[in-house]
Amino acid sequence: MSKLPSVGTSIFSVMSKMALEHKAINLSQGFPNFPIDERLTEIHSRIVLEAQSNQYCPMTGHPQLLDGLQRLILQSYGRTVNPATELLVTAGATQAIFTILQALADKGDEVIVLDPCYDSYESAIILSGAKPVHVALNEHYLPDWNAIEKAITPNTRFILTNDPHNPSGRIWSERDYEALETLVEKNPHLLVLSDEVYEYITFEKKHISINQRSKLHERALSVSSFGKTFHITGWKIGYIVAPQHLMDEIKKVHQFLVFCVNSTAQATLAAYLDVVNVNELGRFYQQKRDVFQSLMNGSRFELLPSEGTYFQLASYANISNEDDVTFTKRILTEHQVATIPVSVFNADGRDLKHIRFCFAKTDETLIQAAEKLKHI
């Protein structure tokens, strides 16, 4: 008997496979196709030759990396965390979310997720024994706080948030975080699981982190991703920030799930944090967004606001009445550009005729893709 009977091959795998078969430009999956920072490469080349860097790390993370994370969080958000008790290095953000839910959610619990949402959330919730409760974001892909409050019951254990948001690229406002704080204050049993993997990829509007909200520190957990931050998605390194009373339980699961994370990658990142400026990342990706938006001028697509992440949503309502899955497959086969239909991020399959482009690509790739898209 399957524990995940409704889970099949993801749309991401389907579109990437089709992209290969049709020799299409792949703007579907969220991974960059350009080189990583040369400094990171140089550090890694040195670290991998050090014997001690190829053996197990401490379960919670490489000591120098944990110290670097403490400094990064203080620098970025003004929050002082204890690296020994409030930080945990994980094998990517997905493992972090899974581990948190395995440790802190139980049978009969409910977890609110805001649709459209990343597809791994629901499976992680179900495997923990809890029940996912889907609440739709509003038509602008921002929280509907009245609907969220109505969805809370005595069994609600978590609200799982994602800001900056995948797939829309929207960013929450100060008012949204005030509403979240009010919600948590009114519901003492409620915890916040904040997926912040795109935290450093923001543009004109800056991301507000849970780590900046002192009212939430004892009831909130944040998840971050080096893979997204430094466009090294294949390294699968992330981290959790959580108060000690919650982190103690998370570590119990983590030690039996992966025990520790890639040692050479951790040592490399520890050294890299001393030389990199994370504040430059937003400018780098904003240039990518601006190039793509400029290239799409004259197309029949309507581009929606992209405030962060490396995703751009577009409406094709002026082009076709097809459902978004059919439309994306057709433009892949006929025009050789792979994209992602947004309806797959909604539990109810809600289809607003929106598709998602990933602009974390070389300018050459974006130019080639835009030329094809403008012929649709």
UniProtKB/TrEMBL annotation:
User: Which Pfam families does the annotation name?
Assistant: Aminotran_1_2
Q: Where is the Aminotransferase class I/classII large domain?
A: 24-373
Cofactor list = pyridoxal 5'-phosphate
Cellular-component GO terms for this entry: cytoplasm
Which keywords belong to this entry?
Aminotransferase, Pyridoxal phosphate, Transferase
CDD domains for the chain: AAT_like (cd00609)
A GO MF term: kynurenine-oxoglutarate transaminase activity
State the superkingdom: Bacteria
Q: What is stated as this protein's family in its record?
A: Belongs to the class-I pyridoxal-phosphate-dependent aminotransferase family.
Q: What name has this protein been given in UniProt?
A: Aminotransferase class I/II-fold pyridoxal phosphate-dependent enzyme
**Species name:** Taishania pollutisoli
